[in-house]
Request: fold
Amino acid sequence: MMNQSIQIQFCALIFLLLICYYSFKRQSVILESMWIYRQLVVVTTLCVMADICSIDAIMYAPESQAAIYCRIYLFLVIWTSFLSFNYVCYDIVKLRHKKRLRRYFFIFTFILSIIPFLLSIRCNNEPGEIYSYGPAVTYTFIVAPIYIIGSILMILFFNKLMNPYRSHAAMLWMLLETTGAMIQLFNRQILLVSFSMALGVTILFAKMENPDSGIDRNLGIYRIQMLYEYLKQLFDNNKKNYSLIIITNESTEKTSLSEDLLLEVSNYLKKSISDKVFRGIANDLVIAVPDDGGLDQKLVQIKKRFEAGWSENQFINPHFISVPSLKLFKNESEFFSAYRYYSNIVSDNHEDCFVFDNDAIQNMEEYRTMQNEIKSALSEDRFEIFLQPIYSVQEQSFVSAEALVRLRDKDGNIIMPNRFIPIAESSGQIEQLGEKVFELVCRLIHSNDISAIGLQYIEVNLSVVQCENPELAHKFLKIMHKYDINADKLNLEITESGAIKQNDVLLDNMEYLRKFGCTFSLDDFGTGESNLNYVVNMPVDIIKFDRTMIRSYFSNEKAKIMLESVTEMIKRMGMHIVAEGVEEQHQLKQLSDLGIDYIQGYYFSKPLPVGEFLDFISRNNSSTSKI
Reply:
């Protein structure tokens, strides 16, 4: 039986030596939990070796010499138990940052581990029973279980604050050690404590601390989760002396890059730039380099290598994001937010290189703040419509109005569209916002008899995203049915860019809504990428000349000739024209003489809140005060 126990000890030692090798194999990116685990592995290995040596010494050496080996073993048993406890405590977020407390525990444990050298110990070398006993052994097997019990209690009480995989593995490890100790306590011929410790350490390695688990199997670089954990460690320890280079690519290329090409690029980066190379979002590559002033030089080196091309004439069009220092960010979450935000912007804007600075961080924070403001405003019904009157030259009265959205913040202040519309568009909130505006207009028409004050319809702007939605017509009809209004009270404005992107989808929506009485305007004519074919092909009733086009008419002779020709052509096609941005009386007169049907601009009124708008229309459309 004793020979079998010795063999078990040697098996445990072999396990631990293998784990030591694989744990120390990778040196470039080591998380703090791995450092603590390495300490545990080394001390556990020494503990098993000391156990084997103490058994050998009891069998063959004088008792005084054997006692020394036994005391060393007991010293290491206490340290193994403490490091087990330390490993568990590190994973508890609340205790991770209490370094002073952990330092006190370290000093306290050192004192406890010295005491076995001060107590007596005896050795038993009877056939089949080789063990040590005495006050030193009794003391050790009181102190060590206290740490083990403490570890178990920590896992039970702080389970929600721990990594679930680590807490499960650590609990299994503690139970193995306890079981081994109990078996050995009641049957001293079976030496299972060291083997159970080795088995527990092996389980931790397999589940949590294998360095290769953080490696991308295809590219041999670190996975994005490893990047997150590594940056978290740097921020937690206030070690922000690193710079980052992010290599991203066009969004359309993210799924088409071959693994062979990425492997070639990754190998070059690891060999020539840094051993800290991570796979980022999608096929992005992230390189961490020391913040020693050499970032620009390394970036130039990488760019030149990309310009030279890769094997088999493969070439990608990269975009580079340079992070001069991690000190720009408060924590790892802020970095990843900025990374996601600007990687999309850089790709969409086709920027070759983007450098993070304080302004970039501030812009991103303002973006996030406004994004959250839009979200809360939609849920809290804090969007409003302002209306700008549209004057009919022929009827000498106001016959319609354009609905313009405004956001009222929680303090009651108005936020203008130029601050939130671009963010709503880029964040994907614009469609929900567009539906909200349409509903507000329908609510206004339902609550007020606009025909009684001379208004024929209200104009509502459609975003490009809404124009791309095949369900647009059905959604709008559902809202109109909810408020029981006629579709002819609404005129939907589409932009030239909206008409271009999804022409077939938009045409289907337009034709469907026109059957119910909706009319359409082509807004901002003259500013988009289209040509006159869109005026011919789109089933619109009104063309709206943009304010820049009107302004040019009064300042540029060529623009004047062009606008006069376009006006004549549109009129001959039976469509009406709205001139936007009219601010002076002479502009009103000349545009009226030219044949423009409707005038919109500050000459008559700025956009007004609903109540003021209704009062304005009632006063100015009365029979006694025609304009």
In short: Residues 251-255 have pLDDT under 50 and may be disordered. The domain at 2-213 is CATH 1.20.1070 (Rhopdopsin 7-helix transmembrane proteins). The CA atoms of residues 38 and 513 lie 70 Å apart. The first helix runs from residue 2 to 25.
